[in-house]
Amino acid sequence: MKVSVITVSYNSQEFIFDSINSVNNQTYENLEHVIVDGGSSDNTMDIVYKLAKRKPIILSESDNGIYDAWNKALSLATGDVICFCNTDDFWPEDYIEVAMKTLISNEDSVVYGDVVMVSRENLIKSSKEVGYYCEKNIYRGFNFRTTSIFVSKSIFDFVGLFDVSFKIAGDSDWLLRAKNKGICFTHANHTVYMRDGGISNEYESTAFKEYIRALSKNNCANLKSYYVFFKKLIKSLIR
């Protein structure tokens, strides 16, 4: 199956070199790299045009945030399978090959993996997040990173595009819609390396507030989800 790797960027010259090279170096052969840029004013696009080698499809224009950019990329993608490589991420050479071994026998699933967080400066590993989906704990989140997912293009056609009214939790909203449509979630053994962005307490609180909105929109909110939200809010105020 052909894999479409989606990368969206905006003034990402600091790290996009590693991101593109990790796609270039994949052992999996049948792939294309869809790169959608938000109209960068730095050297991002110079790097993209110079480095992108895996059947690149490139677009650079202003957008309405990451979910709008992802939607544009999905409209350009021609692969059977979609995955995402953010500009702060990089992969082992067999990343796609390992993930596809699981997806081939689980084409009706969202296949997710693990994440290793690394420092932005010297790439020292800080922590590993092992993906673990548990439906009864959905009020807390999906417990895996969207950056690690592999999804058949047919599932995107079935579930629909990302809701651009979200600024942080649009991927969670999409996953909730997929869940409500009966899509399964399957863990695989691939691992993405993600640079730690140092998310602030304020950002974390805002992100979970959006997640509560996504839960409510998809009829998945309950008292536990509101309890967790207010607990996070109070904790951030105390800090």
UniProtKB/TrEMBL annotation:
Pfam families, A to Z: Glycos_transf_2
Domain Glycosyltransferase 2-like: 4-130
Organism of derivation: Photobacterium lipolyticum
Claim: Transferase is one of the keywords in the record: yes
Gene Ontology MF: a single term: hexosyltransferase activity
Superkingdom of origin organism: Bacteria
Alphabetical list of InterPro entries matching this protein: Glyco_trans_2-like, Nucleotide-diphossugar_trans
Protein name stated in the entry: Glycosyl transferase
Keyword Cell membrane: no
Keywords from the named record: Transferase
